[in-house]
Amino acid sequence: MAVQQPTVKLNDGNAIPQLGFGVWQVPAEDTAKAVGEAIGIGYRHIDTAQGYENEKGVGEAVERAELPREELFITTKLRNGKQGYDSTLSAFDASMRKLGLEVLDLFLIHWPVPEAKLYSETWKAFVRLQGEGRVKSIGVSNFNPDHLERIIGDTGVVPAVNQIELHPGWQQRKLRGVLGEQNIAVESWSPLGQGNFVTHPVIEAIASKHGRTPAQAIIRWHLDEGLIVFPKSVTPSRIAENFDVFDFTLDEDDKRKIAALDNPNGKIGPEPAVMNVQF
Ligand code: NAD
After folding, report:
1. pLDDT (tens digit, 9 = 90+) per residue, 38-50?
2. What is the mean pLDDT of the chain?
3. What angle do CA 98, 101, 104 make, to 5 degrees?
4. Ligand 1 atom closest to residue 167's alpha carbon, by position in its atom list
5. Residue with the nearest Cα to atom 22 of ligand 1?
6. In 3-state terms, what secondary structure has residue 137?
7. Residue 241 near ligand 1, beta carbon < 6 Å
8. Ligand 1 atom nearest to 193, measured from its CA
């Protein structure tokens, strides 16, 4: 019997489990095992991408889990080099073969890649896939307000989510304000700051006050902020630790202290406006 876990209602009416399991940098040969471990612990939402080269392992774990399909929420993302209307449609088919799925829960444009000038055509293909019932929800990742404005203006279809870099050192308050106005759900990538924040003294103090670990305190912060979050680990004890966050909350003092960790130089990953790498 799975743990009762919170969901976030998306602007298209679908619900997404708020806590998931991310598999960036999980080697292809280890993915089925790690995802199987996560599903065994109770995770029901998996975040992968074509560019992670491990969709096949996710598919194997899903098949082995033998759960009713509606119990699992699977996200994948279109790789930058596959943008464009026709190539999006064929790349989607390739993902579905690897994942072994008939219908995908969430498909994201991984990065806008402004230089390629293809993200709007790409979004039109996403709208078609959703119209055909092959994917339930469509969204974007690493989109700035001008990128969003463009795709919404061209199609009238508002993405269900924007997956963005978000952790205590880079809290994205301004962009979150813009997304909130359009009812676009926010997903936090690198929620632990790629592990950097688990040794931060402010986080350590908050965690020990609650008798929890620093990773649990950070994940709880994302949940309390209404964000969708999917920490990554391949270590079974940490996979379990990161899911054991449903029986405590942070107080106002903790929230103030974490808010103060926001840092104008805290960004770890690339700036989407200039990220044009094809992978
Ligand atoms: P993360 O913030 O989840 O940190 C992961 C690292 O933190 C691990 O490698 C490990 O070193 C450490 N860690 C994990 N659990 C721990 C624990 N309990 N105690 C101590 N250390 C722990 O970083 P991430 O993997 O970059 O991000 C999570 C997910 O976000 C990815 O797997 C992927 O699904 C997604 N992501 C998306 C994008 C994008 O462009 N859309 C970019 C990066 C990541």
Report:
1. 999 999 999 999 9
2. 97
3. 105
4. 2
5. 195
6. strand
7. yes
8. 2
* Probe residue for ligand 1, chosen from 30, 161, 233 as the CB with the greatest number of ligand atoms within 8 Å: 233
- Give the tokens for residue 103: 């219908």
Contact 197/216 with Cβ under 8 angstroms? Answer: no
Q: What is the pTM of this model?
A: 0.97
> Is 168 near ligand 1, meaning CB less than 6 Å away?
no
- Residue 120's nearest CA partner among 77, 169, 156 is 156
* Tokens describing residue 81: 């080099």
Q: Is 182 helix (H, G, I), strand (E, B) or coil?
A: coil
Q: For 79-108, what is each residue's pLDDT tens digit?
A: 999 999 999 999 999 999 999 999 999 999
Residue 1 has pLDDT above 60, yes or no: no
**Residues across the chain:** 279
Q: What pLDDT digit, counting tens, does each position of 201-249 carry?
A: 999 999 999 999 999 999 999 999 999 999 999 999 999 999 999 999 9
Where are any strands of DSSP class E within the chain? 7-9, 15-17, 21-22, 45-47, 73-78, 104-109, 135-141, 161-165, 185-189, 228-229
52 carries an active-site annotation: yes
Atom of ligand 1 nearest to the CA of 188: 30
**Torsion (CA) 95, 194, 258, 244 in degrees, nearest 10:** 70
- Confirm if 50 and 84 have CB atoms less than 8 A apart: no
Written as six digits, the tokens of 1 are: 């019997």
Span 184-201, pLDDT tens digits: 999 999 999 999 999 999
